TrEMBL record:
Protein name: Sugar isomerase
A GO MF term: isomerase activity
Signal peptide: none
Species of provenance: Spirosoma sordidisoli
Transmembrane segment boundaries: none
Keyword rRNA-binding: no
Phylogenetic classification of the source organism: Bacteria, Pseudomonadati, Bacteroidota, Cytophagia, Cytophagales
Length: 424
């Protein structure tokens, strides 16, 4: 479904006076507003292809209908999100769920929607119907070198697909690990995985990055071979300068201090990118900022601080992606919510008075330091986020416009009610 320019213009026109009144505070009183607005315009968050359909859980799936059935339809959905918010200008593909039939045509379609290809993801956590050897007992860690070779070749094939599309990174998430004590020799599993990753790393083009994503649990529940940021950091360090750690917010043990992990990885020049989502219990993959918005802000606070300390470009030097999926929401509405929550946390982090914060820290003024952070977090930045969208050619209220156009009904009419998006 296409968003017509008159629909966008009508929507913005209707909301413009109210928006200007809210924005007046920012333009009159905040010296920094223009800088923040420009940074928000530049900041793009990639949409994973697998979040466009209803995710479901292992207990069931309640599809909402009108889900994209092909890669072209997935790009159309991300194109629609981007037309609405002008902040979702990239799509992340998962192979083999999203194998492009014709890479040039796929590139053209993406360009038509103003999208680029973010990191490509390999999949050695499922067996595919035509696959020779099983990943039941792992892939890159497997005791059988033939299974490891198959998984390595798959990753190299994923790189080839990514190259054809103009992607610049490979994300490797491994479900490898063990479910019971005694099942696995940890040291052998680590070195086999490292050797396999080294073969994949050797196939990376020189302008590519390799993201090693960690996860503490699930589907293996006793040990995960890339189970925490420490092991991911170790793999990335041993692999070389093109390898980095990828932080998925849902992949930690309860109460982990993710912002401190982020600060350390940035300092060591090994933070590669993010999978944003939120969770209350485990890898819940809920909407970003829906459960712990203060944590999201604190993470962005470290990101801005650490990236500025190293002179990094916020928009381009790390991979920004959502990784969420749902049973009860329209996936497109949910993604609009996630993108806005991320933008809000980012804008609030940009507001932090860093000089004052450092002074407070040096003086051991705990109360003042906390006040500085909470002052930024409690600021309603929605008017400048909306202004950034407006200036970039998007909608003042993407979700309101999406609903007023009755988008889901139209998608169901085009694609049918009983759709199953490819992927998880
Ligand atoms: C695993 O839980 C994960 O977060 C990885 O990023 C996968 O590639 C993704 O979910 C999709 O299943
Ligand atoms: Mn992830
Ligand atoms: Mn996950």
């Amino acid at each position: 479904m296409n968003l017509e320019s008159f629909q966008l213009a009508d929507h913005n026109q209707r909301l413009l006076d109210a928006h200007r009144r809210k924005l007046a505070y920012w333009t009159d009183a905040v010296a920094d507003a223009e800088r923040i607005i420009q940074k928000l315009i530049d900041f793009q968050i990639a949409i994973p292809s697998w979040a466009l359909g209803t995710g479901g859980t292992r207990f069931g799936r309640f599809g909402g209908g009108g889900e994209p059935r092909t890669l072209d339809e997935k790009m159309a959905d991300v194109g629609l999100l981007h037309a609405l918010n002008r902040a979702s200008g990239a799509i992340s593909l998962h192979i083999p769920w999203d194998i492009p039939q014709d890479a040039d045509a796929t590139r053209q379609t993406a360009a038509h929607y103003g999208l680029r290809f973010d990191a490509v993801n390999s999949n050695t956590f499922q067996d595919q119907p035509d696959q020779a050897l099983s990943y039941k007992f792992g892939s890159l860690q497997h005791v059988d070198p033939a299974v490891r070779r198959q998984a390595i070749e798959h990753n190299i094939e994923v790189i080839r697909h990514g190259v054809a599309l103009g992607s610049k990174a490979l994300t490797v998430w491994l479900s490898d690990g063990s479910c019971f004590p005694g099942q696995l020799n940890f040291r052998k599993a680590f070195s086999r995985t490292l050797e396999s990753l080294q073969d994949i790393y050797a196939a990376l083009p020189s302008d590519w990055k390799l993201f090693v994503e960690y996860k503490a649990f699930e589907p293996n529940f006793y040990s995960m071979t890339v189970g925490d940021w420490g092991s991911s950091f170790l793999y990335a360090s041993k692999l070389g300068p093109q390898a980095y750690t990828l932080v998925d917010l849902g992949h930690h043990l309860p109460n982990a201090n993710i912002e401190q992990i982020v600060a350390t990885l940035l300092m060591e020049e090994k933070l590669g990118g993010f999978h944003f989502n939120d969770s209350k219990y485990g890898d819940d993959d809920l909407t970003a900022g829906s459960i712990k918005p203060y944590q999201l802000f604190l993470i962005f606070n470290e990101l801005v601080d650490g990236m500025d300390a190293r002179g990094m470009n916020h928009a381009t030097d790390l991979g920004w992606m959502i990784d969420a999926s749902h049973n009860v929401k329209d996936p497109l509405e949910d993604l609009l919510q996630s993108v806005e929550a991320i933008q809000i946390a980012y804008a609030q982090a940009l507001l932090v008075d860093r000089t004052a914060l450092e002074e407070a820290r040096e003086a051991n003024d705990v109360v003042r330091a906390q006040e500085i952070l909470q002052d930024a977090f409690r600021t309603d930045v929605r008017p400048i986020v909306a202004e950034a969208r407006l200036r970039a050619g998007g909608a003042l209220q993407p979700l309101t416009l999406y609903r007023s156009l009755d988008t889901r009904t139209q998608l169901i009419r085009e694609r049918g009610l009983k759709t199953v998006a490819t992927g998880l």
